[in-house]
Every structure is written in C-alpha cells, then in structure tokens.
Amino acid sequence: MKVLVVGNGGREHALAWKLLQSKKIEQIVCVPGNGGTASMECCQNIPLAVDDFEGISKLALEKDISVVVVGPEVPLAMGITDYLQSKGLMVFGPSKAGAQIEASKAWAKALMQEAGIPTAKAAVFTEATAAKSYIKSQGAPIVVKADGLAAGKGVTVAQTLAEAEDAIDAIFQGQFGSAGNFVVIEECLLGQEVSVLALTDGLTIRPLLPAQDHKRIGDGDTGDNTGGMGAYAPAPIATPELMARVQIEVLEKAIALLRTKGIDYRGVLYAGLMVSADGDFKVLEFNCRFGDPETQVILPLLETPLEDLILACIQQRLAEMPPIAWKKGAAATVVAASGGYPGEYEKGQVIAGIKEAEASGAKVFHAGTKLNEPQQILTDGGRVLNVTGLGENFQQAIAQAYAGIKHIHFSGVYYRRDIGHRVLSPKS
C-alpha cells in the first residue's frame, strides 16, 4: 500500500511513523510534511498546500496512492474528502457536511442538544451587544468561543465579566477571521478535560484510549490557551465505567443522528469531555480529526495495525474487526515550543539534540520543523517538537519524555515542566 498523509504537524508525523511500522505499507507521501517526515525512510514530502485539492488529487493518482489520510481540520471543513472521492480516491476523514461538527461550534451544539448528548448550557450570538447582555445575566466565570476554526485558540474561559466582554470584542473584531462570525457562550464547567478519540465507519464507532491534553501555555495550567503543550494516555480519570457511558450517551448518539441527517461520517470523531469531581461528564466540543498532541501518545500504544482500522472505516466494515489491541503501560509527550507562542514567534532557528533525545529512549515527533540542506532541522512553527516517552507506568513515561527534551536546544525553546501533574499528584 501507498498512503498519502495530508498535513505538516506532529500528528501527521506520528501517523506516518505508525503506518510505516507495517510491512503492508510500501511508501508514505506527506503533503506538505515537515522535517521529521522528510527524514524518514520510505517517506517523501511534496510541497503542496493542504487546500490544493486539485494538486493533491493529481499527485495521488500519479503515485498510485491507495488511501489518503487527512490530518488537519481545515481541509476537511473545506471539503477535501468530497473532492478526492469524486476523483475515485479512498479517503480517511469525514465529508464537508460531517466536518461541520468541528467547523461550527453552534452547529455542533445544536446537534448535541437534538441528540440528547450531555453538554454545557449555551447560547449563540451574531453581534456583540446581545452577547454582552447575555453574559451580564449569567455572570462569571463563563466561556466565550469563536464559532469556527481557530487552531485551538478561539476559546476564552473568562473569570470576570470584563474579560468575557474583551473576548467577545476580539472575536467580532476579526481576531479569528471568519471563525468570528458567530459567538458561542457557554456555562463554565469545572473538572478535568479528557479527549476521547473514536474511529467510525458511519455505522459502528470504537473509542481509542482516552488521553488528557494540557492546553494552557504555563505550568499549573495558567496563561493563554494553545493547540496543546503536552498529553498523556490512557487518562485514568476516564474509567471503564465512564467510557461505557460515553460510548452509549455520546458516540453512538452522535453517529446515529448524523446518519438520520444523511451524513455518512467515516473517520475520527473526537469528543472533548469535562469530567467533574463526582465522576459525571459533559461534552465540551467535537472535533472531526485526530487530536494533536493526543495522537502522539495514543498511536505509540496501539497494537492493532493502523492501516487495518483505517481501511475498515473507509470500507464500512468496522463491526467485523476484532477489539482494538493496546500495549500495556503509558505514554506521555511534552511539546517544545517557540518562544512567544501562542503569540508571535520567530522561525528558522537551528534545532540541536534530536538524535540525543531519541538515543535517551524518547521518540521525537516533529511538528513545526523543516529540513534545510545539508541535513539541518530548523524551527518552522509555534509548536516545534513533541518528545514522547513510554513506560510501564506514568512515572516512567513522563520521566523518559523529560529526559529526552532536556537534549533539545534552539533559540527561545520553551516547554512546560509539569505535563502529567494530575497523574503524578492526583489531587492537583
């Protein structure tokens, strides 16, 4: 098999890495890929934009690609699956209609409410005055979200009314582009967030291991929201009992309602949950793709060949597959970010220590990197590297990730020192 992976982040490097572990995979083509995918055997980067559907289609047909796996949400929301399928290609990822579940928080909220999926109380607004009037009636803390895609940065958990009003102004004044045409305002839920990524063929849906992301830039979960500064799996707060409820009350309800709406959803359905102190949960959001950096801790623990699961979803035979098999133990990843992220940051910094990090036992997934001749890796994004550790338990996995990241050096490098603090100190 030849597989084309669309995207250039840590998630896509992890997907390519995992697929290449199979003897069935002859070659991976990454569009556009990054410094990590450029450095792997049997993997080729092609510098096409993720929204160049015509170029990707021609490339896939020229290279006799068996399956296209779409990583990021933006091309999915733009309809890449529909376009490539119209050219006779097999694609892993939902259609444009299905991708609305991430592309519009308002649409997803309405779907959850119609399906009876437990979720936070919310209201949707198209102008600032009404939105501000609503938050005054509700009080703080309160959550303000840009409706559309904002690279994980369009959410403000406002602790005061003034902070909420500033967030509303920022969204309607265009900080997040077209994502700010609507504002979704939600009640603020307390607890721990859990990411439940599930694979579906539109009829059957099977969850992967639950993971916990660390979205805030600073230690102690402080500062601005980011695309994710680290993660670990399996998240112990998502007990077998809770996961059984999520299967029935969230995943199966969502797929059933999508089907009744005529949406044939095949790919990843990712439910972001808030789990309260008493073990109950509500859905914060849905995403239409593999999580990043959750993928970088889930795939290293996956035993079942990834390509078998992907093909089962595309060919609508997931129900025939045996239970998904997992390695024992735990995984943790720490993100090495550019100084200034999630705000402005410099690109083009020389990265040192990747080989040393991997020699220490960690796996380094590239995110915002590029390969510069001669064989020099440079920073090319806000989240630069994901240093992943494995172990028999969380202590070992986290220790291995941090032992690895200590070798990473580039100008302005920043990473959190407390990834996994909740499993190391459960009361935190």
From TrEMBL:
The lineage of its organism: Bacteria, Bacillati, Cyanobacteriota, Cyanophyceae, Nostocales. NCBIfam families: purD (TIGR00877). Its EC number is 6.3.4.13. Its cofactor is Mg(2+); Mn(2+). PANTHER family: PHOSPHORIBOSYLAMINE--GLYCINE LIGASE, PHOSPHORIBOSYLAMINE--GLYCINE LIGASE, CHLOROPLASTIC. GO terms for biological process: 'de novo' IMP biosynthetic process; purine nucleobase biosynthetic process. It is an enzyme of class 6 (ligase). GO terms for molecular function: ATP binding; metal ion binding; phosphoribosylamine-glycine ligase activity. Residues 109-315 form the ATP-grasp domain. It catalyses: 5-phospho-beta-D-ribosylamine + glycine + ATP = N(1)-(5-phospho-beta-D-ribosyl)glycinamide + ADP + phosphate + H(+). InterPro entries: ATP-grasp (IPR011761), ATP_grasp_subdomain_1 (IPR013815), PreATP-grasp_dom_sf (IPR016185), PRibGlycinamid_synth_ATP-grasp (IPR020561), PRibGlycinamide_synth (IPR000115), PRibGlycinamide_synth_C-dom (IPR020560), PRibGlycinamide_synth_C_sf (IPR037123), PRibGlycinamide_synth_CS (IPR020559). Keywords: ATP-binding, Ligase, Manganese, Metal-binding, Nucleotide-binding, Purine biosynthesis. Belongs to the GARS family. PROSITE patterns: ATP_GRASP, GARS. It comes from Trichormus variabilis SAG 1403-4b. This is Phosphoribosylamine--glycine ligase. Pathway: Purine metabolism; IMP biosynthesis via de novo pathway; N(1)-(5-phospho-D-ribosyl)glycinamide from 5-phospho-alpha-D-ribose 1-diphosphate: step 2/2. It comes from the Bacteria.
